[in-house]
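User: Can you help me understand a structure? I only have the sequence.
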Amino acid sequence: MINTGKRFNRDWIFRHVNFRFSAGIAYAITGPNGSGKSTLLQVIAGALSPSEGKVEYFAKSNQQQTGNPLNPEHIYLHLSIAAPYLELIEEMTLHEFLHFHHQFKPLLTYPTIPGIIALIGLEKATHKQIRYFSSGMKQRVKLAQSVFSNTPVLLLDEPCTNLDAEGVALYQQLVTTYCKDRLIIVSSNDETEYTFCNEQLDINKYK
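Assistant: Let's start by predicting it. Here is the structure, written out as tokens:
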């Protein structure tokens, strides 16, 4: 991110963000509620355009010293995201939804879709429409579709929203087991959600 800022009307949410996110490192974007953490994450994801500055993306293999620039319009192919404001297709069953998602963004080669459903503890709801899921069950589905997408970048916005203690433990297990060597960015003001992060970016420093 190079001198990146975002405003709505005349109000600046953040300004002058100069920061480099590197592969294989977990970062936390921290700050109080309403401080703009989610907005910053959406700018990183390419879902929102910055009002000033720019966001550049590079893909690097093990043989490269410097990465190749990526077209911002194609960045969605390289990242997955879980966030409270992202909706699920509630008319689909859980199995149908994961299979549908797999057609647009490949899942990890292992586990299989039935294995994913078992890991998130929703075997009994495999063929149940998502509209009938509790908020906690829906959050488990959102985590599954992001964590098990075969992408080098994982963005997590308040990932433990609506999860009970068992769900929080599941989240931490999924990240530990399936997210090694990925670039992870967590937007949160709850330390439970980013205890594994190596670095923190305090959004209040960019006001």
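Now, to help you interpret it: The chain has one domain: 2-206. The beta strands are 2-8, 11-17, 26-30, 52-54, 58-59, 68-69, 79-82, 153-157, 183-187, 199-202. Let me know which part you'd like to focus on.
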